Each structure stands twice: as C-alpha cells, then as structure tokens.
Known about the structure:
The protein has 11 helices and 8 strands. Helix 10 (210-217) links the parallel strand 7 and strand 8 (224-227). Helix 1 packs parallel to helix 3, helix 6 (106-118) runs parallel beside helix 8 and helix 8 crosses helix 9 (175-192). It is α/β, with parallel strands linked by helices. It has an 8-stranded parallel beta barrel, surrounded by 6 helices. The radius of gyration is 17 Å and the shape is globular.
Amino acid sequence: MRQMIIGNWKMHGLHEQGNDLATGIAGAIAPIVAEREIIIAPPFTLIGALASLLRAHDIGLGAQDCHAESEGAFTGDIAAPMLADLGVTHVILGHSERREHHHETNELVRRKVRAACEHGLCPVVCVGETAQQQEDGVAETWLTEQITECLPPDFNGVVAYEPIWAIGTGKAATREDIQSRLSFLHEVLHRHLETDDKSTRVLYGGSVKPEDAASILAVPGVGGVLVGGASLSAGSFLGIAKAGLSLTS
Length: 249
C-alpha cells in the first residue's frame, strides 16, 4: 500500500493563489504519484476550480469537512454528496481545530464518517491528545475513546494521528514518540474494527516539515503524513511528498 501524503490548506488561498499553488505542485508531481498517493484538500471555495487540474495529474481531491446529513436546512454547511459531485475523493473529519473551535464531539464525527462513506468518500479521521492530557497520563485513554467512538466497526478509511501539542508549533514528535503512539493506535484499531490491524492506514500529522519528513515516513506503521502549513508552499510540499524516495526524474 502506497503511503499517503495529504496537504491540508485550511482557510488559506484565493482563486489565483490556489491555482498557482496547485499548478506548482502538479507540474512536478509525476515521478512521485507512482510511489505515493497524493491528496490536496483546499478550502471549499477552490474545490471546483482545482478539480480538473488535480485529476489530470493523478492527485486526489480532498475536502476539510462535511455535514452529517446529505441535505437540509443547514445554512453554510456542505454535504458529502455535494463534495462527491465535484470529484472529491477524501474528506478530513474531526480535525482538532474543528473539535476546539466548532465543539465537534466524537458522536458527531462518527455521523460525518457514516455520511462520507455512504456517498463514496474516504474519511480521514483525526485523533490526538493535548499537552495537558499527555502530562496527566490520560492520552491513551483519550485516544482509545476517539477511535472507538468516532469509527463505526465497519470503518474503511484512514486515521490521522495529530498530537495537538505539535500542530502549528513547529515542534514535531520524535521518531520514538510516533512509533509508540502508532503501535498503540494499531492495537486499538485491531480490537475495535472488524479487520486486520495493519489494513487501516494511520498517518502522522503535526508540524511536518521537509527536513523531518523522511525520518517520519520511515517509522514502522506510518501510512503517510497529513501536512498543514508546509503544504502552502509547492516546494515544501513536494519536498515532503518525495522524502526518502529514490526518484530518477
């Protein structure tokens, strides 16, 4: 299974900026996509504009959220079938920023996962602990609750482990931290899901930078990375996407 590299642009990019960034990535991605699955998740306003360009270069189109219902009187929200209609293949759900700023619960994330799957989208479900939870020794309990409460037993998607204390801080977890946490998450997934523990891809996210990417991607059990700030530069994102690969072109 190829490792997955997801660029989460968050709330960044007007039309011209987004097009320039996507063009810069697409123009150099050809030797990489044979080795790794590349996904770009722009803001909702750019999804339609970038769909054709990304598809033409074998780059998956992601979204940063979806509503739990397929339609209805939910002003300002975007439903999973709307995303699928635009060519979206993956949707990020339960990101720590949405859990914090929009008060999203595990139960709501689970409903969104169901909605995404029902409409053919691959859910990328984020889990992670805060510095305080880590200090208090409850991180594993918290992560277990997130897995068991957010993922239905027949879950067939991707999990992204994002230590909240590392997001946007420039401080990534050590190789030892990542390997320990991913080993634990695979054990929880094995117990919870009706599938083999290694069949669910687990990504790492949290201030991933080009200089750290090769080391992170070489950690056993890492299925790829979820990239935030570094995905807003074509050079940085491409550096992460090809980290550790021996490319001839």
